[in-house]
Design brief:
This protein is an alpha/beta fold and 253 residues long. It has a domain of 146 residues: Alpha-Beta Barrel (TIM Barrel). The chain is 36% helix and 11% strand. The protein contains eight helices and eight strands; from the N terminus they run H-E-H-E-H-E-H-E-E-E-H-E-H-E-H-H. It starts with 7 loop residues before the first helix and ends in an 18-residue tail after the last helix.
């Protein structure tokens, strides 16, 4: 799917055209905006790109996801380097009326690199982490033949998404929660069932996102996940889902 879009200016025009209200009118809804530098923007000019995009969209978003991990935008992942990331975060969080900020990280980082990012996020008082983006690793599917192109998955560029990411993304959520239980985590990657959603929450995610699962399971996936989570809460006699976050409780059929 990639990170394809026509830029923040057109995005804003579409918001206005669709009569999407500004965040002051959105108390019962939550709109997050995921943004990153353009392919044609150099790393040296990345800060200006991020800032100009968010400036336009701040009035509409309840939170912003700083995407430094899309594998489909050349050079973007370099911004996960702690020195470059610190510089970027300092500039963004100084914007007037800046919304809560989350840093979206790659699943291909080592735990050591993730620990450095966690420390940086605490130092800069960023609200949390979204884990994870798509993977450049083919996760055991290297020799899978793509019928439409006749090529192997190992020959394809870009990020792998969906079910193959589930275990790796979940391990990263669990790792981050274990080292910092106060950090707000949004879990994403391979969540395509109530069980996968429950697993991510009990590993430490306070919120979850679905992308590829939505395509394969359709809009019914969301109410299915909600009903599945409610059944687990009832089974364990938990009155508030916050008690399940990071609990390690297993899925019960």
């Amino acid at each position: 799917m990639g990170f394809n879009n026509n830029g923040a200016d057109l995005f804003l025009k579409n918001f206005i055209k669709q009569n999407i209200k500004k965040k002051v009118d959105r108390e019962k809804n939550c709109l997050g905006i995921n943004f990153g530098k353009s392919k044609i923007t150099s790393i040296a000019n990345a800060k200006d790109d991020y800032i100009s995009s968010l400036k336009l969209l701040i009035p509409y978003c309840n939170y912003a996801a700083i995407n430094v991990s899309s594998p489909n935008t050349e050079g973007l992942r370099k911004l996960q380097d702690p020195i470059l990331l610190r510089e970027l975060l300092k500039e963004i969080k100084n914007l007037p009326d800046c919304p809560p900020l989350f840093v979206k990280i790659a699943p291909d980082l080592s735990f050591k690199d993730i620990d450095k990012i966690c420390q940086l996020i605490n130092d800069e008082e960023i609200n949390g982490i979204i884990a994870t983006n798509t993977s450049l690793n083919r996760l055991g599917l290297e020799n899978t033949l793509i019928e439409k192109t006749g090529t192997l998955l190992s020959e394809e560029s870009g990020g792998l998404s969906g079910k193959p990411l589930r275990n790796k993304a979940n391990k990263i959520i669990k790792h981050i929660h274990n080292i910092d239980k106060n950090l707000t985590l949004i879990g994403v990657g391979g969540i395509d069932s109530p069980e996968a959603a429950w697993e991510r929450i009990t590993s430490g995610a306070s919120l979850i996102q679905v992308y590829t699962g939505w395509i394969y399971k359709g809009p019914r996936l969301v109410p299915d996940i909600l009903q599945g989570i409610l059944k687990q809460l009832n089974y364990y006699q938990i009155s508030n889902i916050k008690e399940a976050v990071g609990s390690g409780l297993s899925w019960k059929n």
